[in-house]
Structure formats: structure tokens, C-alpha cells
Specification:
The chain is mainly alpha-helical and 203 residues long. It has 9 helices and no strands. Helix 3 crosses helix 8.
Length: 203
């Protein structure tokens, strides 16, 4: 090509887009927005070193949080769960996700035919099991603390028939909403809906 001639070749390479994002802000809505804006693009994630890394949220931490439930406020579910919600609000978002995963696992472990037997054998129910009621009963087992949970897990005959505590399911969504201003929309590691534990329901 001689000097002065114009090239018809175009550069089809685009400059990469660089974003600096706090990992706590990478929720489901952020990922969906990224997909819409950069569909089919390759994404490279580089984690920068941090001067401080929050310790991981353990099973022991989960049970300590459950112990914050204020049963003196029984009859007002919002006030019962408020200490746990307030505790989670000041934790890193990773702890909220981990709390939800541990809760889901504990509920899933109780989702067995043996634990449902107390309901299935109730003459008033005639063999019918309400999926929701059994889920809320499992919530009550978890809400009553580690010792009670482990007793019931190991001895399904101890499964309470007349206790439920549905509000346990809404602690993380409430804390997440308060902390971020956004709705909580993250899948759990375990599905806690009744009949999800296939091994637990196998005959």
C-alpha cells in the first residue's frame, strides 16, 4: 500500500469493558443485566486481594443465629424473628446466602417418609399429608434449636405434629431486602419442598 492510500480493512476488535464490582453487589439481578447487555460475550473474573476477608459462615454460626429467635414475643412472628433478621443485616451478603443454604439443607434432611409418618398415621387425616404443613412443621423443628433438631433427626418418632413456624423461611428475604433494597432471588443448594428428598421418601 502506498502512502496516502486509504485502507478498506476495518478493525472488528472491540476494546474490552472493564468493571469494578464489589462481589456483594453481584446478585441475581446484576447477573441478568450483564447477560442482557453482553449476550454471548466471554467474561473474565479477576478477584483482587483484600486486606480483610470475612470469616466463613459455619453451621455453628447458623445455630447461634437461630438461638436469637425471641420466643418471649411468641404470637407476633415479626418480633420473634427480628433479632435474627437484624443480625444478618450487618453480615456480609455471603453469610446471608450461606444461612439460607444451611437452612435449606436442614429442612431437606427432615423431608423423609419416617418423619412424615406421625402425620400419615393421624386418623383425622386419613393418610393425607399436606406438603405445606409438613414443611412448616420441619421449620418448627429447626427453629427450636440444634439440640431439638438433632433429636428429631435421629428419632423421627419425636417429630412434633402440632408445631409449625413458617416465618423461618422469610428471615433471609427480609434481611436481604433491608440490606440491599432488592428482593431476594437466589436458589438454595437444597430444595426443601416436601418430597424433594428422594432418598428420604424411597420405600
Amino acid at each position: 500500500m502506498q502512502v496516502g492510500q486509504t485502507s478498506n480493512i476495518q478493525n472488528n476488535h472491540f476494546m474490552p469493558t472493564v468493571m469494578t464490582v464489589n462481589v456483594d453487589d453481584m446478585d441475581a439481578s446484576f447477573v441478568e443485566e450483564l447477560k442482557r447487555e453482553y449476550a454471548h460475550a466471554a467474561v473474565e473474573i479477576k478477584v483482587q486481594d483484600r486486606p480483610y476477608c470475612a470469616p466463613s459462615f459455619t453451621v455453628d454460626d447458623f445455630w447461634k443465629a437461630i438461638a436469637l429467635l425471641d420466643w418471649l414475643q411468641e404470637g407476633d412472628d415479626d418480633r420473634v424473628v427480628e433479632p435474627v433478621v437484624a443480625y444478618l443485616v450487618v453480615q456480609p451478603l455471603s453469610h446471608l446466602y450461606r444461612f439460607f443454604d444451611i437452612l435449606a439443607e436442614k429442612l431437606w434432611q427432615l423431608d423423609t417418609r419416617a418423619h412424615a409418618q406421625v402425620f400419615l398415621e393421624d386418623p383425622d387425616e386419613e393418610g393425607y399429608l399436606s406438603a405445606d404443613d409438613f414443611l412448616y412443621a420441619r421449620c418448627a423443628v429447626v427453629a427450636n434449636g440444634r439440640a431439638f433438631y438433632e433429636k428429631v433427626l435421629g428419632n423421627p418418632a419425636q417429630m412434633p405434629k402440632d408445631l409449625t413456624f413458617e416465618p423461618l423461611l422469610y428471615i433471609v428475604p427480609a434481611a436481604y431486602q433491608r440490606k440491599t433494597g432488592k428482593p431476594f432471588a437466589a436458589p438454595s443448594a437444597f430444595c426443601f419442598e416436601t418430597y424433594s428428598n428422594k432418598k428420604g421418601w424411597a420405600k
